[in-house]
Design goal:
The chain is mainly alpha-helical. The chain contains 18 helices and no strands. It starts with 8 loop residues before the first helix and ends in a 7-residue tail after the last helix.
């Protein structure tokens, strides 16, 4: 079985750089609406539920393709699948840029979500193919950090671009970048040598059933799903309105705080991934470290809603840092299943995360919209407490589920 060594730098570059560029774009697409939301509202007169829908449809189409994506990645490899899908992201960005209605924006955003649906999972699958299991938390963390750089670019840099152009030209540029990254993935990512005959489609579907019926999967997945869905929903959209309506920040300050959140996220991916690798060498389980981090992330969310004035920026930076702990769950599950199931394990978890992220981001907008707007055109604290609090309660239930089930320690056969 071929493995990567320190001397094989060219192969490392070919493996990491194209996937990093793809996930950079994926995350930029994911969170850019938090900054351009005032422009979309101003141009199209959107309410919070409409804004939540057109933003969250990215998560829906992303999620809908996760199960077939897992089968395709395990059967055809990461290079071909991601290279083709990114073409749909480019098409979606063009549709979004040219749309004058909510329907057009939803269609474009949906195509984008479908097109970037492999950007993380393809990388995770390739890392499982090429790297030893102990390296997966760090490798996954580096990949996630590339996404964090995309989130960084979607904050203050996008706000600056909007002073020299508009959101439509921005999405034309993103379409061009998507085409370039698709070419990079197709041309430079190495194919994993085939090890033995491929299993039949029926056999691969049985593998998907095996994942979803595993007690280990259902021990870790519920908390990971709620934690990641909350993080994605809030960071990708509702953090911006909260900072405007509750903290009272001006638009430029909101963009700068979002930049800090994204920077903290990058640091979290790198530092927590490296720390997890070291702690697992000392005998701690990856899944336990993930659950501990997600439980701390839950406490931080409570603090955002109820801490006294003056703590806003510090708590939101902590939100960005510890919101990354849910990603450790992917490495934990990859370590607990056979390597040939890696694509299906990761996409099974991703399916649940993004379905719930779609429901949560849209639903949070619906809850916020139950309150009348304030004189400044925003929404009151009670609206955000109800909306964010809904996600906090669900995470608390799943944290209790994990820690109680951990006492029994179910094992995958």
């Amino acid at each position: 079985m071929p493995t990567l060594t320190a001397n094989n730098r060219q192969l490392l570059i070919r493996l990491f750089v194209p996937f990093a560029l793809g996930y950079f774009l994926s995350y930029l697409f994911r969170v850019v609406n938090a900054v351009i939301a005032p422009d979309l509202v101003g141009d199209l007169g959107l309410g919070p539920a409409d804004l939540g829908l057109l933003t969250s449809v990215y998560f829906l189409t992303f999620a809908m393709f996760q199960l077939p994506l897992g089968v395709l990645l395990d059967r055809f490899g990461s290079r071909r699948i991601e290279g083709i899908l990114l073409l749909f992201a480019a098409a979606g960005a063009l549709v979004f840029a040219m749309s004058d209605s909510v329907t057009g924006l939803v269609v474009g955003r949906g195509l984008i979500g479908f097109g970037v649906s492999a950007c993380l999972m393809a990388a995770f699958k390739a890392f499982v193919d090429w790297l030893p299991p102990a390296r997966l938390p760090l490798a996954n963390g580096v990949q996630m950090a590339a996404g964090g750089m995309g989130a960084l670019s979607a904050t203050a840099p996008v706000e600056w671009l909007l002073h020299v152009t508009d959101w439509r030209d921005l999405f034309v540029l993103l379409a061009v970048l998507s085409l370039l990254v698709a070419a990079a993935v197709w041309l430079f990512v190495p194919d994993r040598p085939q090890e033995g005959p491929k299993s039949s489609v029926r056999g691969q579907l049985r593998g998907t059933v095996e994942v979803f019926t595993s007690p280990v999967f259902w021990q870790i997945a519920p908390l990971a799903v709620l934690s990641q869905a909350s993080f994605l929903s809030i960071q990708g959209l509702w953090a911006g309105p909260w900072l405007r309506d509750i903290a009272g920040f001006e638009r430029a300050t909101v963009a700068n705080v979002l930049l800090l959140i994204a920077a903290a996220m990058v640091a979290g991916f790198l530092l927590l991934g490296a720390s997890t690798e070291r702690l697992t060498r000392r005998g701690l389980q990856t899944k336990t470290l993930a659950a501990g981090g997600m439980s701390l992330f839950l406490v931080i969310q409570v603090g955002i809603l109820f801490a006294p004035s003056g703590w806003e920026i510090a708590l939101w930076v902590a939100f960005g840092f510890f919101g990354t702990t849910g990603i450790i769950s992917y490495a934990a599950l990859s370590q607990l299943f056979a390597k040939q199931l890696a694509g299906r394990v990761n996409t099974a978890l991703n399916l649940l995360v993004f379905v719930l992220a779609f429901v949560a981001q849209w639903g949070m907008g619906g809850v916020i919209g139950l309150w009348p707007t304030t004189e400044s055109g925003g929404y009151p604290l009670e609206a955000y407490q109800a909306s964010f609090g809904m996600m906090i309660v669900l995470q608390l239930i799943m944290a209790i589920w994990y820690w109680l089930s951990a006492l029994k320690e179910p094992r995958h056969p």
